[in-house]
Amino acid sequence: MNVSRPFRLVATLALAASFVLAGCSDDQKSDKADHTHDQVEIHVSDAWVKAADSGMTAAFATLENDSEKALTITKVTSDASSDTQLHETVTAADHSSMMQEVKDGFTLEPDRMLMLEPGGNHIMLMDLKKPLLPGDEVTFTLHFDDGSAQDFTAVVKEFEGANESYESHGKKH
């Protein structure tokens, strides 16, 4: 059988096009699979740390649970401090406000936000390793009750408020 040259060229191009389209299809499937692994369950925004030369300071942010399950932050770590804690505001017997460590962590229900703010819940850096100056960045790792973890970065800012007293291991700071 004599196949014309133009027919062979068209057949070859059609075969090549089918391989290219099949390759694109597989790539698109693989991209979709990769994006599901990138999904962030806790969205962190407006993260900042109060500037301090030494001792202790606090970090603040808005945390939003974008997942379909409750997530509990059991601890937080940072290279900026040897002792980083989750803190809350409590009212003492004399009706004064005091900050103290939250031993059971913060639970974020699905599609809810947790505000970490001056005078409220926050992350406490108890023993700074070096001065934190305005413009510096501090990296934190949130650790969850399911064993997972998530990093975020906060910028250091000057802030005159939030000069609360803190309770740690039975001592006021």
Can you describe this structure?
The protein starts with a helix and ends with a strand. Strands 1, 2, 3, 4, 5, 6, 7, 8, 9, 10, 11 and 12 form a 12-stranded mixed sheet that branches. It has 2 domains: 1-38; 42-161, Immunoglobulin-like (Sandwich), CATH 2.60.40.1890. The protein has 173 residues and is an alpha+beta fold. It is globular, with a radius of gyration of 26 Å. It contains 1 helix and 12 strands.
Q: Name the CATH class of the largest domain.
A: Mainly Beta
Q: How many distinct helices?
A: 1
Named CATH architecture of the largest domain: Sandwich
| First-to-last CA distance | 95 Å
The class by helix and strand makeup works out as alpha+beta
Outline type: globular
The sequence of SSEs as H and E is: HEEEEEEEEEEEE
Q: In terms of per-residue confidence, which ranges show pLDDT below 50 for 5 or more consecutive residues?
A: 7-39, 165-173
Helix content: 10-25%
Strand fraction equals 35-45%
Give the C-alpha Rg: 26 Å
Number of extended strands: 12
Mean pLDDT: 79
The third-level CATH topology of the largest domain is Immunoglobulin-like
- What is the count of distinct domains? 2
Largest sheet: 12 strands, mixed
CATH superfamily of the largest domain: PCu(A)C copper chaperone
Task: Give a nutshell description of this structure.
By secondary structure, the chain is α+β, with helices and mostly antiparallel strands.
